[in-house]
Write a structure and sequence with these properties.
globular; 4 helices; about 100 residues; two-stranded antiparallel ribbon; alpha+beta; MDM2
Length: about 100
Amino acid sequence: MATTSKKSSGSKGGGKGLAAEVKPSADLAAIVGSDPIPRSEVTKRVWDYVKKHGLQDQTNKRMINADDKLLKIFGGKKQVSMFEMTALVNKHLTA
């Protein structure tokens, strides 16, 4: 009976991908803070902001309504899909 064991290194991906710290733009920093944080945390904080301010569309929950801060992130669009939101947020991050 063969057993396989996985080595755990303590960090997933070695600081790449979602675990890599990124610096938010000044506009995005107004929502997620200005400190470098992992991409996954950026997404979490944006969603927390959307929920806290009731910006998720009530009839179509896949759509996010922009307030003044999010308008800057969304390139002036008043409403974007949750999938489009991720791509637009990524434009405001630098490695």
